[in-house]
Amino acid sequence: MNPYDLFLLGKNYLSHHLLGSFLNKDSNDENISTTFRVYAPNAKFVYVLIDNDKYLLNKIHHQGFYETTINKNLEWFSYKYEIHTKNGTVLFKADPFSYFSEVRPLNSSRVYDINNYKYNDDKWFYNKRQVYDKPLLIYELHFGSFMKNYNDFKNYNEMPDILIKYLKDNNFTHVEFMPLYEYPLDDSWGYQGTGFFNVTSRYGSPKDLMYLIDRLHQAGIGVIFDWVLGHINKDDFGLHLFDGSYLYENEDEFLRENITWGTANLDFNKGITRSFMLSALTFWMDYFHVDGFRIDAVSHLIYHLGNKDNGLNEGAINFIKELSTHLFKKDDRLIFSAEDSTDYPLVTHPVSSGGLGFNYKWNMGFMNDTLSYFELDPIYRKYHHDKITFSIHYAYNENFILPFSHDEVVHMKGSLLSKMPGSYEQKFANWRLLMMLFITHPGKKLLFMGGEFAQVAEWNFKTELDWHLLSYPIHDANNKYFKDLTNVYLNEKSLYQYDHNPKGFKWLIVDHYDSSVFAYLRASDNDFLVIILNMTPNRYDYYEIGVPYRGKYIEIINSDRDIYSGENHFNKAPLKTYLEPRNNNPYHIKIKLGSLSGLILRYEKE
């Protein structure tokens, strides 16, 4: 079957090889001409506008494909399509399949040679493994506000040395970039895209981004892209109403219009829409070597407008299954995660087992319950004990990522630190306790930038992170705590081997409502750790914890140490076991437990 028919039927996952602008070379590999090809079935005429010149495209397929070849090397030239529709209107559109664009507020496409970048990340792909029983600690990053050159953005190719060192120092295994395809308005953070094959020109060229990803891979750091699959920006130069018709969108006004976001929903019952998005994600894997995608607003893909009352979005559900099957065939080590707040079943189960096809889902329940618990004055926490315990009831229904994402630290919600109650010092103690729960709870981890050093102010995309805070002893000490805690995470198999299997978790103390103390065990095949969390300012010289085995229990990290700005109430010597049952366990230990503190004990046989 020819590629045009495959595109129309939704089976062309290389549509970017069919449509767009292409540089043609001679036998000496020199560019000698440029071809433009576009799909616009509702067009009467199509022109391409380049500088002050205007070229008519010829209709090459009865279904609405147009093409022209210009005998010039037009690399780096800007262009737009002038589309004369059958109803008499004239539209000026950027190329939906272009690889590069002018820097906003300009919005023309640019001819770009996407080929011939030489990657040096073979070792990364050779050694990469599936992450289900491996540590996964993701740093969610907004490229434009992580770090700046004075008031201007850093270029992609300025970032490798800075970013690699920082990620390594803080023990992150992956970086998740908020959208880096093209979008017109900085304020949207990339979630209202106009160029899904198009690297945003704010931060440099496509090959600059290739270089950054290549370097990250060489340093052993995976790269995940945030992606909006279901809806598009409505700016007049973009994909919306591309040829004057709802070409890629849902034709039904009620199902199409996202009032909240001001966007238009795509219709995945259409073959061309399926081919478009299938090709877009394939493109980023092939050309940019990305290791995974986080799909935004999956509730809107499962239910029309994200509302059960509107019924299942069958077209989108079927497309997700088709897409995941295709992507996992390309790379079965892919991370394909859903930002989904619904109770739709089997989201992270394989399509072959009746699932939706993602392999990870954001645990929005854990995030909401945990943050609402920590925002409480500790005196009231005993009345909300279940906000900490409930998440275990469903922790193994799906493969979960625990997300403290950008959405939790914007729009007057405050930073993680500022959510915490109490005095200045108690806010940091609560933050350290929150990080202990986050790192030791079953599930993989995602943290938005700034959370690792307890940034005080909520995120502002217009400025860089408050790096000056690291010159203050309390922030430096708390960042040291985060580094030490995540180092424990990377090196203790008990904290990740059975993230998705209940055999790796056991409650030791679950019903101490009045003291708001929790204790649980995380286990691997060969060993286990005991985690104790004290959620109030009360301090204990001896707190009895029931344990399953006789032996030594050695404290390996305690959030109350003075090196972390704590009160230094910790357990110096290995803790011995007492042959007296506590909390349905045959033995118990007696520990020092500091105010608003968490600690991890490693078990050793006697």
Sequence of strands across the biggest β-sheet: 11-14-17-21-22-23-24-25
The CATH class of the domain at 134-232 and 275-379 and 403-440 and 449-489 turns out to be Alpha Beta
Strand content: 25-35%
Helix content: 10-25%
| Total helical elements | 15
Rg for CA atoms = 27 Å
Mean pLDDT: 96
- Under the CATH scheme, the architecture of the domain at 134-232 and 275-379 and 403-440 and 449-489 is Alpha-Beta Barrel
Which descriptor suits the 3D outline?
A: elongated
| Low-confidence spans | none
Q: Could you say which structural class the secondary elements and strand pairing correspond to?
A: alpha+beta
Please give a structural write-up.
The chain has 606 residues and is α+β, with helices and mostly antiparallel strands. Among the domains are: 3-110, Immunoglobulins (Immunoglobulin-like, Sandwich), CATH 2.60.40.10; 134-232 and 275-379 and 403-440 and 449-489, Glycosidases (TIM Barrel), CATH 3.20.20.80. The chain is 23% helix and 26% strand. The strands form eight sheets. Strands 11-14-17-21-22-23-24-25 form an eight-stranded parallel barrel. Strands 3, 4, 7, 8, 9 and 10 form a six-stranded antiparallel β-sheet that branches. A hairpin with a 2-residue loop joins β3 (43-50) and β4 (53-56). The protein is elongated, with a radius of gyration of 27 Å. The model has no long low-confidence stretch (mean pLDDT 96).
